[in-house]
Amino acid sequence: MENIVIRLKEQGCRLTPQRRAVIKQVYESTEPLTVTSIWHSVREAYPNISLDTVYRNVSVLVELGVLIPIKSTGKEGVRYELAAADHHHHHVVCVKCGQAVCIDFCPVNQHLLELLHGHGYELVRHTVELFGICADCRLTVKE
Questions:
Q1: Contact 102, 91 (CB under 8 A)
Q2: Known binding-site positions
Q3: Which residues are annotated as a binding site for Zn(2+)?
Q4: pLDDT digits 0-9 by tens, 14-59
């Protein structure tokens, strides 16, 4: 977690106790979290923290490239995970339950970069969103 703190300080970002708590919750989680779930966890240490404060902190952390939003069509909405500097990946998300699974593949290749460059673009970041129905939800549909 300290490498994240150092990176944020290098970018001139203030590290309030609430922001540290948000980072800690996502850092310690084994799965992507919604803003609401982050808020519930952070409230244990900071009972007066508002949901709006957590939303603002998450938004700043996304802008700074610390968190990655994983969009979902399920009831959970957007979930967030830490952006790993050494592990770029994408996700497939279940449209029924919202479960997200990491896909260790990136379709952005040299050909695509050259195509973008030909249109005058330099790629600065990207996300690939894949949606499907997970095995558990397929089973419940068939039953």
A1: yes
A2: 88, 94, 97, 126, 134, 137
A3: 94, 97, 134, 137
A4: 888 988 999 999 989 888 889 999 999 999 999 999 999 999 999 9
Structure tokens that stand for 69 in this block? 């939003």
pTM confidence score = 0.70
Residues 105, 118: Cα–Cα separation, whole Å: 24
E strands in the chain: 67-70, 79-82, 90-94, 100-103, 129-132
CATH code for the domain of 121: 1.10.10.10
Residue bearing tokens 């695509």: 112
Annotated binding site for Fe cation: 88, 126
Note down the domain range covering 89: 2-142
> Is the torsion defined by CA of 13, 54, 71, 82 positive or negative?
positive
pLDDT of residue 142: 62
Higher pLDDT, 128 or 142: 128
* Structural domains counted in the chain: 1
